[in-house]
Amino acid sequence: MASEAKFYLTTAIDYVNGPPHIGHAIQKVWADVIARYHRSRGERVWFLTGTDEHGINIVRAAELAGKTAQELADENSAKFQSLRQALDLSWDDFIRTSDRERHWPGAVRMWERLAASGDMYKKHYRGLYCAGHEAFVTEKDLVDGKCEDHGNAPEIVEEENYFFRLSKYSKRIGEAIKKSELKILPEGRRNEILSLIEKEGLQDVSFSRPRKDLSWGIPVPGDDSQTMYVWCDALINYLSAIGYGRNDEWKKWWPADVQLIGKDILRFHAAIWPGMLLSASLELPKAIYVHGFINVEG
Q1: Which among 161, 132, 127 has a CA at the least distance from the CA of 148?
Q2: Residue 134 confidence (pLDDT)
Q3: pLDDT tens digits, 190-217
Q4: C-alpha to C-alpha distance for 55 and 286, rounded to whole angstroms
Q5: What pLDDT, on the 0 to 100 scale, is given for residue 66?
Q6: DSSP string for residues in 123-169
Q7: Closest by CA position to 258, among listed 43, 14, 51, 78
Q8: What is the 3-state secondary structure (H, E, C) of 209-234?
Q9: Helical H segments across the chain, by residue range
Q10: What gap in Å lies between CA 259 and CA 272, rounded to an integer?
């Protein structure tokens, strides 16, 4: 007897500055196991994956390869899509953030919702920027002055950006995690993000880059001098793929039942993403599953 329950599963979307590796492959296999299990229970399953295609890293990698950013994105996204056949994966949809018809409307709608909530403001900012993470970092995030994940010293960047008032939602996010309204597994990762929230509180986050420095991306609505930063671009794929910004189909699937991610993007998904959803008056995902890395030669 078929179940009426729906099950919406997402993976991290993969960055196209390089081809897929074993770490990308194993995440998709784990997700596939979860999706197949819920299908076997007769549930309506939607399994989403895709590629994250904007940002300065793509531009730099394309320049080194003598290609345009779009050409590099097309080439590497196709390699990620080829994992479906190579690994016998069963995803239902594959979203690309360079897709102007399917993805961009959702990112624009989210930006407009955050602005309407009074949670977007513009200011001059000077900080340490890690190109590998496509994110601003602080001194405490570094090891011997370098990013632990990428092994490079961050650049000092000074510019005028839009910021999102994430600090406004720090307490509410912490409470949602404590009450398991937003489940984070394993427990060690739950404790990690709770420790960050309770000890430091969440800080406001840069949400744009000057378009003169980053033209490869989605223009900020109403301000062509700025390009959307990764948060309102990449994270929104979980909604844009199911119709957010285009139609009401997304309401049949949201909230996500499980969002499967790697440990390096825990803060983004368990802090910034919930803050955006709260600001936009949308439900939080039910659970975030966080996995470690496969290490090769250290």
Answers
A1: 132
A2: 66
A3: 999 999 999 989 999 999 999 998 999 9
A4: 29
A5: 96
A6: EEEEEEEETTTTEEE-GGGEETTEETTT--PPEEEEEEEEEE-GGGG
A7: 43
A8: EECCCCCCCCEECCEEEEEECHHHHH
A9: 22-40, 56-65, 69-81, 83-86, 104-116, 170-178, 187-200, 230-234, 237-240, 266-267, 273-279
A10: 14
